Amino acid sequence: MSADQIFSICNSAALLGWFILAIAGRKRWAAYLTTGVILPLLLAVAYSVLLAGHWGETKGGGFGTLTAVATLFSDRWVLLAGWIHYLCFDLFIGSWEVRDAQAHGISHWLVIPCLILTFMFGPVGLLCYFALRIARVRTLAV
Predict the structure, then answer these.
(1) Whole-angstrom distance, CA of residue 124 vs CA of residue 118
(2) What are phi and psi of 23, to 5 degrees?
(3) Average pLDDT over residues 3-27
(4) What does the chain look like in DSSP terms, one character per residue?
(5) Cα–Cα distance list, 109 to 7, 15, 24, 84, 121 (Å)
(6) What whole-number distance in Å separates Cα of residue 141 and Cα of residue 33?
(7) Are 60 and 68 in contact (CB under 8 A)?
(8) Exposure string (b/e) for 49-70, b if CB count within 10 Å is 16 or more?
(9) 76-103 and 123-137 helices cross at what angle (nearest 10)?
(10) Is residue 36 very low, low, confident or very high in pLDDT (cuts 50, 70, 90)?
(11) Residue 56 contacts by C-beta under 8 Å, 6 or more apart in sequence?
(12) What average pLDDT does the chain have?
């Protein structure tokens, strides 16, 4: 399977997860699919397989400097693994936002913009959710 095919499959799986979160995020089956049991777990497996199969292929890449990170991601397979890393963790965070909002009585309609931002811009959506949570619950404490 090519890197482009894996990219397409993983993007589609993550997008499915985001649609489930937005439309039916508070349903028990939706949490089962998006919290880590199904979709993030499958993305994590794809990530792990890609790393195991392609980690040593980049020369001079690493995490010590920005240049080393750029070198690391110059390999398409490692870049794909990095992208799947984002898909997996962002989906997991979106699922947490939905469950946390439900636990604190925050309307799902208010969470949807945070989900969109988390899907598109990761930490910006999480920041938006924290602001919403503080505004509605007056605390970040569990």
Answers:
(1) 6
(2) -90, -45
(3) 93
(4) --HHHHHHHHHHHHHHHHHHHHHHTTSHHHHHHHSSSSHHHHHHHHHHHHHHHHGGGSSS--SSSHHHHHHHTTSHHHHHHHHHHHHHHHHHHHHHHHHHHHHTT--HHHHHHHHHHHHHHTHHHHHHHHHHHHHHHS----
(5) 30, 19, 11, 28, 19
(6) 26
(7) yes
(8) ebeeebeeebeebeeeeeeeee
(9) 10
(10) low
(11) none
(12) 91
Buried b (16+ CB within 10 A) or exposed e, 116-130: ebbbeeeeebbebbe
Burial class of residue 109 in the structure, from the number of CB atoms within 10 Å of its CB (0-12 exposed, 13-18 middle, 19+ buried): exposed
Model's pTM, two decimal places? 0.88
Residue indicated by tokens 């979160």: 21
